[in-house]
Task: inverse folding
């Protein structure tokens, strides 16, 4: 088939559908596009890799604070989303299959199903983000409206907002211990039981002792800051992942349009296959995110 | 013979249309998918950024003419050297050779009609413009004062300048080099002409391939690092802030994980150009082709394992430091292999001292000094004395300017006849090449001494005993500036009144010389079939060098 196309191409009359001018034949184009996509995925791995590094560094430094954060996440929603994404990978694979078969209707059906699963995932993500918002767990300054602490926090950047709830649990909080005040954010976290648990069972690390304790007692402010790093990494990772899902849905919409116009056939289906690679990659990222963010450290409280 | 025919392109007559005459509207340029036109647009863009960065450099040298900080106040000085670094590193040095010369030549050198992904190529140009626009906007709003390294927690917590805008510019710009690298890798794998095996590739292509690997694997990490920095600045969650449990050293690790390999993005392409220059202007097959090819790959791979030598005095563990120091010495080996091979190539070659070759020879000397002083800085004991002094400044300018910029200029001169179809004035070319060499050494060699004597970098004022050497340095910078402005004039003039270059002005065997100048839009009228090895100067390959050399001596230069 390749030689056939090549021979015809020399006449400059026959032009296979979708063949771009710089290529000699479809095989060369498919190979190029495929290597290109894999290279793109390699750079995506490095892109997420930076965040995974940050996660590993802080998780190994403050395991109890991260466990506390993990325990707040709802493994039910996370698990459901994992299943949703795995099923969407199946429908994506079937889309590619039917594109190769040239079956327009089944191809469109599975694109629609893939999109539905993708949107379900994002819907669940919205539910989860709303929960964080309601509990004052958004680490970005001033975004926790519902959980805003009363009084003292409104008076601008010089106020000591954010310490209000911590004042109760720490007898001598103050500027000298906690020089850095977070002037705008009102991230809320009071439960320091995991730090005490670790101390009781003698597996508190040196970094944690420095990180959670002031004068030998657990400092709720300091513990909260570490949990806040956890939630920040949580939002950064899942947010970036959700952004990739949204881009994926855009790709699916484009594929749906192309499939509806009958673009893809046994001869020309590379866009479907490449979008499929992208979709599977985004799924796999989630397969790593789910245990790291939801499951590690759950045994401490469950 | 097929080869002889191929090398005498004129026999077939010129194509009716070349890539420059194929459409004259603005739209035909802005929406082009032709790698050659995109390269020309990159050439103009990086030149603009080079001009901006160079202007900042002049201001720095003027300020340092006197010990007191009299021209600028210290805050402004911080911004000036920061912007000099950002403009030069991210918007000139990194894209210069890959996006201009690589874009133009890689497809032609392997006998392809275009890069494999022309639309992605155009996209990378637009991303570059967008990133550049953000950086320029931040600069016009008042600039940044963090140093080009953006070290935390200063950049996240204390600096009141436009860190976000410029950071966003660098973030966006990173995707431009990722896409360029991706395109080069794909093109080298799939678009080679029949007969163009991996070991017949010009060494420039090998260097581009190695550079692309670094671009793909490294750049995403700086992207995510800058993103983390921006989010930290926005939300102050403490990921890099030590007062609430964060770790500023983590930033340095992540920053240098990219930025040290990026140093190799800033030298590998130059090495590729110089391999071309040395072999072609010695008219001799390059010595140890495979060694040069694989040393490029080795540099790219080892380059990822040495970032820790930027953290010797940042509180990194001593044992980690020892490993990083050792690996730094290891990465010197492939670099040295290249220098030895270039020198061996020169031995008994028919060397002609044309402008590109002057740049090529200058590169070897300057890179040698830059590379060897790198070993000083890679050893854990000496670095305690030398860190953050002008010794470091001199070292990396020898590699980046003495290496990459000199190679870039050599490459521009070498391929200018191919890109434009016109010859520039060889006389002025040689003068400018020598001015650059002399001016460069005069600027930066005194800085080694200054650094060794203890003059710290990034200060607007200094003790009076350092003034003499600083005057030398500023004087050298003036010579360098003249040497750099001259090519702009005579190269532009060559476009108007230059002689026609012909397809193969240097009489060389490479594929790029076997098509007309400027090349047609699809590069070759007849699809090339490669039957010769790289750098094959034998007579069977159709090159009558004796005849060519005689003609050159008779023909007047200028």
Result:
């Amino acid at each position: 088939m390749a030689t056939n196309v090549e021979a015809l191409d020399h006449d400059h009359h026959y032009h296979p559908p979708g063949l771009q001018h710089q290529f000699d034949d479809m095989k060369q184009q498919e190979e190029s596009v495929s290597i290109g996509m894999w290279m793109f995925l390699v750079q995506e791995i490095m892109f997420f890799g930076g965040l995974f590094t940050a996660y590993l560094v802080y998780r190994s430094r403050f395991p109890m604070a991260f466990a506390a954060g993990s325990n707040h996440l709802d493994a039910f929603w996370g698990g459901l989303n994992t299943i949703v994404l795995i099923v969407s990978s199946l429908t994506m694979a079937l889309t590619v299959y039917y594109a190769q078969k040239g079956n327009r209707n089944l191809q469109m059906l599975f694109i629609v199903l893939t999109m539905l699963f993708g949107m379900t995932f994002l819907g669940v993500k919205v539910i989860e983000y709303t929960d964080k918002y309601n509990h004052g767990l958004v680490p970005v300054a001033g975004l926790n409206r519902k959980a805003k602490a009363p009084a003292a926090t409104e008076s601008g950047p010089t106020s000591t907002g954010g310490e209000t709830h911590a004042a109760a649990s720490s007898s001598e909080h103050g500027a000298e211990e906690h020089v850095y005040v977070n002037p705008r954010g009102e991230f809320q976290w009071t439960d320091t039981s995991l730090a005490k648990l670790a101390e009781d069972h003698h597996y508190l690390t040196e970094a944690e002792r420095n990180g959670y304790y002031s004068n030998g007692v657990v400092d709720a402010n300091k513990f909260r800051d570490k949990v806040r790093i956890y939630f920040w990494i949580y939002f950064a990772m899942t947010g970036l992942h959700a952004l990739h899902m949204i881009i994926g849905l855009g790709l699916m919409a484009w594929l749906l349009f192309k499939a509806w116009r009958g673009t893809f056939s046994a001869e020309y289906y590379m866009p479907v296959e490449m979008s499929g690679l992208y979709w599977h990659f985004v799924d796999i990222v989630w397969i790593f995110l789910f245990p790291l963010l939801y499951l590690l450290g759950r045994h401490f409280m469950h | 013979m097929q080869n002889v025919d191929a090398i005498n392109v004129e026999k077939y007559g010129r194509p009716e249309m070349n890539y420059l005459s194929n459409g004259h509207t603005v739209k035909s340029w802005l929406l082009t998918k032709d790698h050659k036109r995109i390269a020309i647009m990159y050439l103009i863009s990086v030149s603009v950024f080079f001009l901006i960065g160079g202007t900042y450099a002049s201001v720095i040298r003027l300020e340092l003419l006197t010990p007191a900080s009299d021209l600028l106040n210290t805050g402004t000085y911080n911004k000036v050297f920061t912007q000099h670094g950002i403009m030069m590193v991210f918007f000139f040095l990194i894209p210069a050779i890959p996006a201009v010369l690589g874009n133009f030549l890689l497809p032609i050198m392997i006998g392809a009609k275009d890069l494999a992904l022309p639309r992605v190529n155009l996209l990378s140009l637009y991303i570059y413009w967008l990133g550049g626009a953000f950086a320029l906007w931040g600069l016009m709003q008042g600039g940044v004062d963090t140093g080009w390294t953006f070290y935390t927690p200063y950049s996240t917590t204390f600096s009141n300048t436009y860190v976000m805008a410029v950071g966003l510019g660098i973030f966006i710009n990173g995707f431009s080099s990722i896409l360029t690298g991706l395109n080069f890798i794909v093109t080298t794998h799939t678009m080679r002409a029949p007969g163009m095996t991996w070991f017949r590739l010009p060494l420039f292509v090998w260097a581009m391939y190695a550079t692309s690997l670094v671009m793909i694997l490294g750049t995403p990490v700086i992207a995510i690092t800058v993103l983390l920095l921006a989010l930290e600045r926005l939300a102050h969650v403490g990921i890099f802030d030590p007062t609430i449990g964060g770790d500023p050293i983590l930033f340095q690790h992540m920053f240098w994980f990219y930025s040290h390999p990026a140093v190799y993005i800033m030298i590998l392409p130059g090495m590729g150009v110089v391999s071309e220059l040395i072999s072609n202007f010695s008219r001799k097959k390059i010595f140890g082709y495979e060694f040069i090819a694989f040393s490029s790959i080795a540099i790219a791979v080892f380059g990822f394992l040495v970032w820790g030598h930027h953290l010797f005095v940042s509180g990194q563990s001593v044992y980690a430091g020892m490993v990083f120091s050792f690996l730094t010495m290891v990465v010197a080996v492939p670099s040295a292999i290249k220098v030895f091979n270039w020198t061996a190539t020169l031995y008994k070659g028919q060397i002609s001292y044309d402008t590109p070759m002057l740049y090529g020879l200058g590169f070897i000397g300057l890179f040698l000094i830059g590379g060897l002083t790198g070993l000083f800085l890679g050893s854990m004991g000496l670095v305690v004395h030398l860190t953050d002094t002008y010794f470091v400044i001199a070292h990396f300018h020898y590699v980046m300017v003495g290496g990459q910029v000199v190679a870039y200029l050599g490459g521009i001169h070498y391929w200018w006849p191919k890109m434009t179809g016109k010859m520039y004035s060889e006389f002025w070319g040689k003068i400018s090449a020598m001015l650059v060499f002399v001016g460069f050494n005069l600027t930066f060699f005194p800085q080694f001494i200054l650094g060794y004597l203890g003059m710290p970098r990034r200060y607007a004022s200094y003790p009076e005993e350092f003034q003499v050497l600083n005057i030398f340095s500023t004087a050298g910078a003036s010579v360098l500036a003249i040497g750099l402005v001259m090519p702009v004039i005579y190269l532009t003039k060559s476009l108007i009144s230059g002689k026609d270059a012909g397809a193969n002005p240097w009489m060389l065997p490479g594929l790029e010389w076997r098509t007309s100048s400027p090349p047609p839009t699809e590069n070759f009228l007849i699809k090339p079939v490669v039957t010769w090895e790289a750098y094959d100067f034998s007579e069977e390959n159709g090159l009558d060098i004796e005849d060519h050399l005689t003609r050159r001596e008779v023909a007047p230069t200028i």
The longest helix of chain B spans residues 74-109. The interface with chain A takes residues 112-118, 120, 178, 181-183, 185-187, 189-191, 216-221, 223-225, 227-228, 231, 234-239, 241, 243-247, 250, 254, 522 of chain B (CB under 8 Å). Chain B is about 65% helix and 0% strand.
